[in-house]
Write a structure and sequence with these properties.
alpha+beta, 17% helix, 138 residues, Alpha-Beta Plaits, 33% strand, 5-stranded antiparallel β-sheet
């Protein structure tokens, strides 16, 4: 006999949005906290498990005493964004590198849907600075 999901584990407004939405609507975005320097590993495992993940990065030049190397730096170190059903979050939490979902107490915090359009030049504005992020889907 399978245990039933406790509805108290997910806020009512999130459950209402998910249960009342048609099947073609995707789940909301959640921030997933990952271990230090495990953004790439956690993203790969979430993708393999069938989740839509997003971890924007940018190229930065790192200089050592003997060489200079171009490396990927994550825009939000320690976090990966993932679309998931908050009632069924165990597969996300058991992925290698994943620590927890960002939220308040036991409740994961979803990111609200916005009606605004992305700029045509492919930039995201953060605190007044323009940061170019490539590979952003619709």
């Amino acid at each position: 006999m399978e245990p039933k999901l406790k509805r108290a584990m997910v806020p009512k407004e999130v459950l209402h949005d998910i249960e009342s939405a048609p099947d073609n609507i995707r789940y909301p975005w959640f921030a997933v906290r990952v271990r230090s320097n495990h953004e790439r590993i956690a993203s790969a495992h979430l993708r393999e498990r069938g989740y839509e993940e997003f971890s924007p990065s940018w190229k930065a030049e790192r200089r050592w005493s003997d060489r200079t190397k171009e490396m990927d730096q994550f825009l939000f170190p320690g976090y990966v964004f993932c679309r998931l059903n908050p009632s069924d979050r165990l597969p996300v939490l058991t992925a290698p590198g994943v620590v927890d979902l960002v939220g308040f107490g036991r409740f994961p915090r979803r990111y609200p849907r916005t009606k605004s359009k992305r700029p045509a030049d492919g930039t995201i504005r953060i605190a007044g600075d323009a940061v170019a992020v490539s590979g952003i889907g619709p």
